[in-house]
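> example.struct
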């Protein structure tokens, strides 16, 4: 049965009525709130209903902040379909500062990137005094020096009676991070639901997650062996000097700590620190190269070496000496004409081919952490029948190669949505928030250690129908550690949110007094949102059995044996019964 939300400012038959979303709206209208819901559970629909109610109140204007231009474009298109009486406007870095001043006053609803909000407030182009509602999409960015949290702080400092609504599926795995978000946004409440919540789980599309263990070819292991001997030698030396202190095989985290200690020793006058800094820098490059070979492939490793060898990319002396080493010279010769042999690349080809044979209309996203891997994967997919692949990367220029400008990123996504391309090979720029209909297979080329990125990547499928997630794990490599780290952090996330939630100043708002202007159309009958929620609560309330139907057998003594009391006492200790016998 379909229930539709009705409100004077909403286009009819657009938002499906879900009780848990309306409860979130009621609570958010009571004060600044952080909403934590699984991906595809409808966080954006909650923001639409908040906007509708604020427009009805005729009190100030609404600012909707999204972290990327692609997300701003998506939210703008959605708002134009959903909000009835107001035309929304978007403002990004693509709009010149001189023209932005007029745009800020053009509409009651503005969708913008956080950077333009922060910059225009600082430059006196924008005032947030009359802004009554600030919506922060992907609110987990509201930490550190991110423009999103800076914009929110400016809003709290200048808005008269405004409230903040932050939404995310992944606020962070530790209480310190969640607490920072709530503190700096001046959040009063957290509204959280997990995917197994009875009121929510029936609305989520099925999502199958499968981990695929991939063997590293022996030829790659042979190439890696001398590099591992080299890095182990450096780490053993730095252990003796007290710089590298972690146990186990060399890791980037351990090397980073060692570098910090070496630099600190230089400040204290220890001249040996200079040698340590150089050696640790070499070890960091080796660690990166080894991981490229083991988890990414031949092509990615070759491109990494080619890029780092260029003087303009890496002018440091340690990198120059690294490339003069005979082991690296020999490795580059070996890689120069070598075909791609990593089994991950073949696995991606197989998964894509199998999916498109099953359903030629499928859309597939392949996530990889490095741009050179994205390029290698796109080349590997070109000759597959039925595959029309396209890259999506960030906008920054790296190693002399230009990225995609925000407008180009939007064009790529539109072409993918419309079916001009059916395989999107992307870096982290495509991870967050993007609603890509029918992306029914997501392939992680490698697991990522961040629970935020894992949740965001996973959320690109299963949004409208059942989807699959395939995670490729190179056996015996850092991939296995990354997978375990992300799983542990995701388990900790909900515990951390609950701990912070208990310490917030305001308790849950549950009287439903803020949604009196919302109705639900149910079987051609209009009922109040309040009544609808109460009915849903009753439907999902745990039912207690009136009669215990479990059979209880008669307890009978069979062959009961009487045990003497003295057997329970320490040797030599007398019991009361013994005194009775003597009398």
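> example.seq
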């Amino acid at each position: 049965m379909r229930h539709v939300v009705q409100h004077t400012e909403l286009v009819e038959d657009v938002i499906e009525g879900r009780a848990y979303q309306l409860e979130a709206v009621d609570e958010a209208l009571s004060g600044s709130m952080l909403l934590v819901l699984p991906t595809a559970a409808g966080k954006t629909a909650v923001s639409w209903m908040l906007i509708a109610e604020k427009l009805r109140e005729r009190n100030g204007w609404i600012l909707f902040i999204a972290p990327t231009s692609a997300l701003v474009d998506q939210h703008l298109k959605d708002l134009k379909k959903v909000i009835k009486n107001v035309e929304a406007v978007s403002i990004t870095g693509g709009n010149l500062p001189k023209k932005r001043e007029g745009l800020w006053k053009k509409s009651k609803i503005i969708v913008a990137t956080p950077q333009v909000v922060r910059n225009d407030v600082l430059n006196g182009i924008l005032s947030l005094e009359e802004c009554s509602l600030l919506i922060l999409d992907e609110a987990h960015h509201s930490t550190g020096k991110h423009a999103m949290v800076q914009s929110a702080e400016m809003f709290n400092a200048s808005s008269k009676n405004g409230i903040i609504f932050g939404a995310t599926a992944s606020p962070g795995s530790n209480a310190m991070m969640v607490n920072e978000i709530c503190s700096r946004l001046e959040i009063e409440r957290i509204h959280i639901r997990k995917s197994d919540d009875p009121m929510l789980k029936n609305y989520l599309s099925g999502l199958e997650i499968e981990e695929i263990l991939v063997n590293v070819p022996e030829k790659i292991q042979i190439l890696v062996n001398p590099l591992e001997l080299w890095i182990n030698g450096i780490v053993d030396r730095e252990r003796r000097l007290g710089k590298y202190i972690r146990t186990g095989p060399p890791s980037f985290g351990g090397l980073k700590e060692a570098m910090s200690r070496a630099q600190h020793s230089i400040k204290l006058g220890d001249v040996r620190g200079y040698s340590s800094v150089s050696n640790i820098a070499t070890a960091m490059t080796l660690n990166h190269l080894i991981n490229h070979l083991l988890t990414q492939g031949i092509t990615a490793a070759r491109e990494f070496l080619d890029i780092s060898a260029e003087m303009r990319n890496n002018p440091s002396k340690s990198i120059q000496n690294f490339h003069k080493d005979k082991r690296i010279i020999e490795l580059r010769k070996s890689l120069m004409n070598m075909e791609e042999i990593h089994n991950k690349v073949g696995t991606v080809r197989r998964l894509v081919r199998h999916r498109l044979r099953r359903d030629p209309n499928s859309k597939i996203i392949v996530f990889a952490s490095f741009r050179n891997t994205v390029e290698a994967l796109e080349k590997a997919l070109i000759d597959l029948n039925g595959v029309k692949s396209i890259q999506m990367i960030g906008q920054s220029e790296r190693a002399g190669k230009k990225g995609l400008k925000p407008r180009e990123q939007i064009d790529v996504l539109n072409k993918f949505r419309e079916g001009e391309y059916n395989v999107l090979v992307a870096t982290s720029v495509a991870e967050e928030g993007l609603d890509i209909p029918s992306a029914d297979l997501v392939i992680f080329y490698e697991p990522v250690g961040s629970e935020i990125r894992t949740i965001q990547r996973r959320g690109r499928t299963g949004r409208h129908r059942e989807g699959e997630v395939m995670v490729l794990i190179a056996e015996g490599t850092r991939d296995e550690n990354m997978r375990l780290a992300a799983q542990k952090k995701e388990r900790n996330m909900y515990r951390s949110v609950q701990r912070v939630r208990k310490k917030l100043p305001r308790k849950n708002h549950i009287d439903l007094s803020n949604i009196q202007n919302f109705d639900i159309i149910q079987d051609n009958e209009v009922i109040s949102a309040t009544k609808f929620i109460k009915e849903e609560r009753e439907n999902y309330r745990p039912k207690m059995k009136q009669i215990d139907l479990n059979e209880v057998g008669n307890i009978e003594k069979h062959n009961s044996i009487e045990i003497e009391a003295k057997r329970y006492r320490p040797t030599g200790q007398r019991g009361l019964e013994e005194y009775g016998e003597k009398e």
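> remarks
Confidence is low (pLDDT under 50) at residues 460-464.
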